[in-house]
Amino acid sequence: MLDNRKKQILQAIVDNYIDTAEPVGSRTIEKKYQLGLSSATIRNEMADLEELGYLMQPHTSAGRVPSLTGYQLYVDELMTQYSLTLEEIGVLKSVMEEKFDYLEKIISKASGIMSDLTNYTSVVMGPKIKKDSIKNIRLIPVDSQIILAVIVTNEGIIKDKKIRLRHISDFEGIERLEKAINSHLAGIESTEITMDRVVRLVNEAKVSDDITIAVLEFIKECITSQSKDDLYVNGSANILAFPEYSDVSKAKDFLNFVGDKENMMLAISQSASEAGDISIKIGGQDGNADYSIITSKYKIGDSMEGVIGLIGPVRMDYKKAVSVMKSVTDMINNKMLEITKKEDGHE
Amino acid sequence: MLDNRKKQILQAIVDNYIDTAEPVGSRTIEKKYQLGLSSATIRNEMADLEELGYLMQPHTSAGRVPSLTGYQLYVDELMTQYSLTLEEIGVLKSVMEEKFDYLEKIISKASGIMSDLTNYTSVVMGPKIKKDSIKNIRLIPVDSQIILAVIVTNEGIIKDKKIRLRHISDFEGIERLEKAINSHLAGIESTEITMDRVVRLVNEAKVSDDITIAVLEFIKECITSQSKDDLYVNGSANILAFPEYSDVSKAKDFLNFVGDKENMMLAISQSASEAGDISIKIGGQDGNADYSIITSKYKIGDSMEGVIGLIGPVRMDYKKAVSVMKSVTDMINNKMLEITKKEDGHE
DNA sequence: ATTTAGCACTCACCAACATCGAGTGCTAAC
DNA sequence: GTTAGCACTCGATGTTGGTGAGTGCTAAAT
Lengths: 347, 347
Description:
Chain A is α+β, with helices and mostly antiparallel strands. Helix content of chain A is 50%, strand content 18%. Chain A binds chain B through residues 101-102, 138, 140, 142-146, 148, 150, 152, 156, 158, 160, 162, 164, 166-167, 236-237, 240-241, 245-246, 248-249, 251-252, 255-256, 259, 339, 342-343, 346-347, and chain B through 101-102, 138, 140, 142-146, 148, 150, 152, 156, 158, 160, 162, 164, 166-167, 236-237, 240-241, 246, 248-249, 251-252, 255-256, 259, 339, 342-343, 346-347.
């Protein structure tokens, strides 16, 4: 479709624009990137690229700026690899050497690292538990009103939640419910939590509905990972460093977007679900969006998976972002392995 | 010290400046506030007020702006009461009617409401548990590596934490530890958690040090309220709406300040501890601060207390902020009463 | 048939300059 | 003690012309 020379030029333009945030002109390309072409030729090619929709001109006598399609082509075909600097590797290493006990700490640290290294806004979604890897569920009455529900996965990760009820008296019932849930659990899907199944459970456990429903809600939450508490956002103030957000109202929009956790979870999980390992969503596709979202899935053994993401201006350093994200994903995987391995060694 | 007329004029100036964010001149005061004085007289008084240190002039031919001491006098003596509008009362009412099960939900909702109503950044610190109101502590091993530690207060509020250890085998030891802690608990102070005490506990429980230390750490956290998870910050993007933060670098400083939870907890608890019910800290006193912090304590029965706060530009609508804060504090108290009453009815 | 040099043209950006007006301080009259 | 009047200050706003980076086009060079 696009001949080689056009691609080279497009790549140079995108690279340069990502770097400088300024429309790039033909002379800049001629001097900075030795393509063996005169500015006039580049000029002609640029006119072509504009006609094809890969470039845009803010005004007649300005340089060119990549269009969304331009960025798309860039991330799909043109983008080169970025290698982390020694310093960056150092930061990652130092984190690798820290001891982590809990999933949450790793997750939140990962988010911090990502935003530190990229200066973009990072977001990490706590893992959802895969249906078939729940080792067991415990229901512990701690008070006359509160049950602590705990899910333990095969990998030894636990999630817990307090369930508050009007009054608990039927302790044996809760025990029966615990048993009933554990035995019916194998391979439960969130969509399979139907009234039917609930009725059967209630019958078996002979415990009041409200307890059962609350517990099942919790399980569903773990499977679909829809808890706001599991979302870690970092470095949203970074956005202000980018000239495209020196307009305060734009910055405000952005911060409101990133601050709204529901919204954010939706955006992240949508973006992630559509693609495989790493997905890049270039601004404006949601209609309301002036920024790009890069997401990557991480896995904890076979039992859990979650998503990490970076959000920044459309003029984002995609190659750096992608490479940092890969490293962080690896880091999470390794650190989790460490935690879960520890247990295996002992049992 | 200050005669009445000077106070009136100072009040008018502060009120107006809070409203408009613009230096206020003598003519404005003459027209907007009927003090029965000509602009010339007001001018003279303003010159006096400036000499006394209550006002400042950005430049020779501009109006006057309150100085920090000016604000201080204003909040101490001059500030009138603000009554919430019907609309604002409506918002609060609608929240009052919602059902809340959990402390955390109320807390986080309260934070949201506060920032919505004032357009400032709100922060709510989860309550710390008073030492003498811990009903009991439970240690529940849920896995070969994890103990769930749960504190239940007299009011029926619970806090819990996962404690991960290398390997747990000594289940009886944990039970002994639980008993030992519960019996030694009466009147424990965070400062009293010394090596000494730990040793004694370990001796009594005959369980390994690391478990004991981890559990005591958790208790300490609950007593001193030093958990980052219990801090809810809302509406930090609001700051961008204020002209004093249209300078992006200032806005960035602010957002970084508010985003740093450790920092924030320190600032809030310092501010709150110094005064009684409501404390107003006017910018700059920390050296690094360009903004004001208003804090108010809330209580849950006799067993817990926490802090809510508002952070905004020095030119803050103090009267509104204070009144909203009072209402929200009341709301928290009432809602908590509801939750804890529920239990009393049953027991 | 490309590529390139050359040139006229466009347009954002900036500095210099003038203008405006809100606000002051001071003096003199009330 | 208060106020009217006036000269003065100084930031904000608007205008103007120059500058330079960049373009598109044409004609010469390869």
